[in-house]
Write a structure and sequence with these properties.
Layout (H helix, E strand, L loop, with lengths): L2 H9 L4 E3 L5 H10 L6 H10 L2 E3 L3 E3 L12 H10 L6 E6 L3 E5 L4 E5 L6 E5 L2 H13 L12
Antiparallel strand pairs: 1-2, 2-3, 3-4, 4-5, 5-6, 6-7
């Protein structure tokens, strides 16, 4: 999982409410049953956290999230597919924006809510987290400055 996310969670654990870890075999079965080949950093994040809520309004969708709360991967993607989301994407985050994995190359992309067009592309969870979520919330919540290493 992201070093920066770990550091932020250590500094402000009150901002992170995870669904709970998922056993590797269980997660592999879930991915296989859906024919998904996702980035390692997302799979690791799900293994460690199961997805969940962070900051004031952000949700990392999880394989076993609650459909009644719209925080599970399946129901959120079904809903967006019904409104035109291409099968080329899997939405994995909702909140400030929609974030998906572009399945052909496993890139993290920000999608427009209305037409699902791409408005940003990131190589990894960490680069997306820093550029999108952390840039919005770090000052507001007093997160420490990023170290360069």
């Amino acid at each position: 999982m992201s070093r920066i996310l770990h550091e932020d969670e250590a500094a402000r654990p009150d901002l992170f409410v995870w669904n709970g870890p998922i056993e590797r075999d269980e997660l592999v079965r879930w991915l296989t049953s859906r024919g998904l080949d996702l980035p390692d950093d997302l799979v690791e994040l799900w293994r460690e956290t199961g997805g969940g809520d962070l900051f004031e309004s952000e949700t990392i969708l999880g394989p076993h999230g609650n459909p009644d709360l719209a925080d599970d991967v399946d129901s959120v993607n079904k809903s967006h597919r019904e409104s035109g989301l291409s099968e080329a994407y899997l939405i994995v985050h909702v909140g400030l924006c929609l974030t998906a994995i572009r399945l052909v190359d496993k890139k993290w992309v920000v999608l427009d809510r209305r037409d699902h067009s791409e408005s940003g592309e990131y190589e990894s969870f960490e680069s997306w987290y820093v550029a999108v979520l952390r840039s919005e919330y770090a000052d507001r919540y007093g997160l420490p400055s990023l170290r360069t290493s």
